[in-house]
Amino acid sequence: MVALQRAIQRVKNGKDGLVNIVSDSKSSLEVRAHARIVGNEHADELARSTALTKKTAVEYDRYPLLHAKKVIRAASLEEWQQRYAEGSTGEITKRFFPRVEQAYRVLRDIDMTYQVVQTLTGHGGFAPQYLFRFRLRDSPHCACDPAIIQDVLHVLGDCDMFLRERAALEAEIGIQISVRYFPEILNDARNRDKFIRYCVDIADRCNKMNRDA
């Protein structure tokens, strides 16, 4: 700062005409916002006055905050969906919920009993296919046909042992009970509870059969 002061004094006393003073001193260039400098105080007053009296919309109204949040959320969901779809796990769950936003919305409204968890994941004592993987059953095949693997999807959508229950639900909701339509059924709040009750009933019966086997 002393060097700058002397340089300015020399310029004032000299006759060199236009002079450039070069310095790397940040403190010499910094002006505190409220240092009682008339120009700064006047600029602050004008800014406050304009904010209170200007009738036109502010600039950021052209891009509302809610829209920005929506764009960010959409990008996050798309990235989540890509990871979900390309992941090597959760194949059973994907047959019920091919889209993560549907899963997020629907699962909040479902009472997650152990039967529901077994149904939507394919884990547990629901189906011999899962038990066979852990050597808890001698065979993964279904009692309805020894050539068919008995997994959750087969039991709910194809197994002849539960044909009557499946037909009754189809008549009640007007939609075929097959893997193809599981996402549609779960997405409809009117049919979701009925389908979940059907799943719980089948899960209970399958668990009992597998325990007794």
UniProtKB/TrEMBL annotation:
Taxonomy, superkingdom: Eukaryota
Protein name: Retrovirus-related Pol polyprotein from type-1 retrotransposable element R1 3
Organism: Eumeta variegata (Bagworm moth)
